Amino acid sequence: MKTRWILLLAAGLFLAPAGCQDPRWTQSEAVDHYIRGRVLADQGDANAALAELAEAIRQDPNLAVAHATMGDIFRRQGNLDQARQSYESACNSDPYAFRPHYNLAVTYQMLAQAANAFAKAEAYLQNAVRVYLRAVAIDPGDFDTNLNLSACYFQLNKPNLSEQYCLAAVKLNPRSPQAHGNLGVIYDSQGRSLDAVREYKTSLEIDEHQPQILLNLGAAYGRLDRPKLALTCFELSAKEDPNFAPAHEQIGGCHFRQGQYDKSLAAYEKAASVDPKSAGAYRGIGAAYMSQFVLDRQKTDLRDQALDAWQRSLELRPNQPDLARLVEKYRPDTSTTRPF
Fold first, then answer.
1. How far apart are CA 50 and CA 75, in angstroms?
2. Angle between helices 321-330 and 300-316 (to 10 degrees)
3. 237, 215 Cβ separation under 8 angstroms
4. Consecutive sets of 10 residues in the chain, 340 residues long: mean pLDDT of each?
5. d(CA 93, CA 248)
6. Which helix (H) or strand (E) covers residue 303, if one does?
7. Which residues contact 151 (CB under 8 A, 6 or more apart)?
8. Would you call 321 exposed, middle or buried from its count of C-beta atoms within 10 A (0-12, 13-18, 19+)?
9. Are 211 and 247 in contact (CB under 8 A)?
10. What is the pLDDT of residue 28?
11. How far apart are CA 81 and CA 93, in angstroms?
12. Are 203 and 180 in contact (CB under 8 A)?
């Protein structure tokens, strides 16, 4: 996350006649406290820095840089709501300052990510959009603002606006792998697989070390019915990051669709080993075992292993009604079993 530091030159102090306080004195005192707060913040003494900045604001409530610096400290501490309030005060004090608007919008995005309810996350994202639009009006040429605004619109299910600002980001920085990768995701969401492939490949030409983009490219090839290219991308993704469970899951899926159940099982088990909380990995393990059982129903141990894996998948992600039906379908009937 980028940061621009603003250096202020404190004005000289002017002595006022006794009994009358020149407002320039108060402003200079506020700036002095702000500078001390900045120095303390840079030294890592957050509490002392906040105290100095609070005093600066008491002396001059409209000192935008003091509000903004408090926001920076609160955000580093993970106190996002306090950061939001400080950045909002900075924006109100200086409506034409780019940096506080940008940081306020980023903070709203972080609040959306941390929200535990969809409606709350959506409200934060809408606020992020509102502030990013203000920031992009102040500085239309800022790459990060355009890219982040695009991401917010995408999360709000507004792909056309998301595409508009992502294209602006690409124009501002054609060598950004993130911008091309995001544009690929946007095109994928619109069903434009060929355009998505083009953008993913451009992103990888700029930076080939991107397991997620390799995964996305493989998925796009799969939708274009090019399974060999899809598998190659998934294998490259897993090679790039051996602990990237989704890549192993996709490899398992490719082998499963080709009827190569042993290879499929090995890939899904690898996914589960690197991410024991992957519901998809256990679902795949169950599918590989059950497919082998269906070919030879004498091997009930394979059925039991499949059911165990599927049950684990449902524990990790309960909302899989189709899988729950499969468990019921293949669960052995014990009602006719006679006691000894």
1. 12
2. 150
3. yes
4. 36 31 59 94 96 96 96 97 98 97 98 94 98 98 97 96 98 97 97 97 98 97 97 98 98 97 97 98 98 95 97 98 97 62
5. 51
6. helix 300-316
7. 109, 162, 182
8. exposed
9. yes
10. 85
11. 18
12. yes
Contact in structure between 21 and 52 (CB atoms under 8 Å): no
> 75, 135, 129: which is closest to 100 by C-alpha?
135
Query: Tell me, what amino acid is at 319?
Result: N
From CA 146, how far away is CA 270, in angstroms rounded? 38
For residues 174 and 167, what is the distance between their CA atoms, to the nearest angstrom?
Answer: 10
Residue 335 has a pLDDT of: 60
Q: Which amino acid is at 47?
A: N
Radius of gyration from C-alpha coordinates of the chain: 28
- Contact between 206 and 183 (Cβ < 8 Å): no
Determine the Cα–Cα distance for residues 213 and 193; give it in Å rounded to an integer: 14
Query: What's the confidence (pLDDT) of residue 18?
Result: 34
Helices and strands counted in the chain (H then E): 17, 0
126, amino acid identity: Q
Determine the Cα–Cα distance for residues 49 and 97; give it in Å rounded to an integer: 22
| 151 and 162 Cβ atoms separated by less than 8 Å | yes
Residue 294 confidence (pLDDT)? 95
Tokens 């009006």 belong to which residue? Answer: 137
262 three-state secondary structure: helix
Q: Return the HEC string of 4-26.
A: CCCCCCCCCCCCCCCCCCCHHHH
Tokens of 92: 């109100």
Dihedral of alpha carbons 95, 99, 100, 102, sign: positive
